[in-house]
Amino acid sequence: MESNVAINSILHVLTYVFRTRIVVGGTSILYRIKLHEVIAPVPTHEFNVESKHHHHSKLTMWDVGGGKKLRHLWNYYYPGIQVVFYVVDAHNKNRLEEAKEEFDRVLQDTVLKGVPVLILANKQDLNGALSKDEISSYFGVQDITDRYCDVIETSARINLGLTECLDRAIELCKPKS
Ligand SMILES: Nc1nc2c(ncn2[C@@H]2O[C@H](COP(=O)(O)OP(=O)(O)OP(=O)(O)O)[C@@H](O)[C@H]2O)c(=O)[nH]1
Ligand SMILES: [Mg+2]
């Protein structure tokens, strides 16, 4: 089976204003999955795409840059996507409101209608990162009724939750009988 997975990284909105990097971890997750390595961080200006064989399935994962100026390009990657990984920095509470606004826009996109979404609550290795339940409540997961949506706690740094992401993506891509 071949599956398409979109990793939507989010927000660098204030990066260029305050010269502070506000970071999420989409690319780190992609390459932790693909290469089993923690990569040196470089902001994604276009996209990265990698394939990964997992449990007799081939997942093709598209990682798009999360900078504010790049977000209008996300929808070019949506056709054919079967699962969205929406990566959130669970440690940076200041950015959650904007992350939620962007998340709501993703859910409203007609091309992604009904496509399952897994919210990756990333950076769980850092003290004070919001838990699965806290992120779920903030993103209103219980009120999302038009598709499958769940939260997985992840860390690209300590390789937490990433196998579960692949397992769940494959399960969600299986044709319904
Ligand atoms: N502590 C911690 N830091 C992480 C984790 N994942 C990524 N980072 C760090 O977060 C920063 C951004 O990571 P990236 O993977 O480049 O984030 P991104 O979402 O792809 O960013 P853009 O491409 O600019 O949208 C880097 O400094 C990473 O080392 C994690 O699980 N834990
Ligand atoms: Mg990136």
From TrEMBL:
Keywords, sorted A to Z: GTP-binding, Nucleotide-binding
Task: List the PROSITE patterns hit by this protein, alphabetically.
Answer: ARF
InterPro entries linked: P-loop_NTPase, Small_GTP-bd, Small_GTPase_ARF, Small_GTPase_ARF/SAR
**SMART domains per UniProt:** ARF, SAR
User: Where is the signal peptide, in residue numbers?
Assistant: none
Pfam families named among the record's database cross-references: Arf
Q: Give the superkingdom in one word.
A: Eukaryota
The Swiss-Prot or TrEMBL record describes its family as follows: Belongs to the small GTPase superfamily. Arf family.
PANTHER family documented for this protein: ADP RIBOSYLATION FACTOR-RELATED
For this entry, the protein name equals Uncharacterized protein
